[in-house]
């Protein structure tokens, strides 16, 4: 449950919009008064009419993820990546879905793609550190978590990185 909460926070911090160019987004979603299933149905309708709408795809995938429907989320993240292969947010979120589907190796590859596309993408570095820590690969988790602290020196992501680093230190690492 704690890990799901952390992932939900990561998704919230990365935003529900797919890519960095938020100023040029054409469609804004305000589903604050609807249930997730209603939001999903509405977005599916929008995507049927415009399958190349990156915002809609990304938001739908995030809703599936938040609902614990990781297979569906993964499929939609893959569609979003097909629309914009440079969408680092999509690769990060895709990695989280893969991790929850039990494929840590593919998740780590997805995070690596995200940070290759955007080297200063703090959330993707944190996601990588989170997965490595969760997999008991504490030594490997140190570098990405330290990168988070370099990029976000005092923010919430740095605090989360500190928690993972403390967990790694507790495992008697050098």
Written overview of the protein:
The protein is mainly α. The chain has one domain: Alpha Horseshoe (Serine Threonine Protein Phosphatase 5, Tetratricopeptide repeat).
Report a brief summary of the structure:
The chain has nine helices and no strands. By secondary structure, it is an all-alpha fold. The model is unreliable at 4-34 (pLDDT under 50).
Please summarize the sheet with the most strands. none
H/E series, N to C?
Answer: HHHHHHHHH
* Residue fraction in strands: under 5%
| First-residue to last-residue Cα separation | 30 Å
**CATH fold node name:** Serine Threonine Protein Phosphatase 5, Tetratricopeptide repeat
Share of helix, binned: over 70%
The global form is: elongated
Q: By helix and strand content, what is the structural category?
A: mainly alpha
CATH class: Mainly Alpha
Query: How many distinct helices?
Result: 9
Low-confidence stretches: 4-34
Task: Give me the CATH architecture, please.
Answer: Alpha Horseshoe
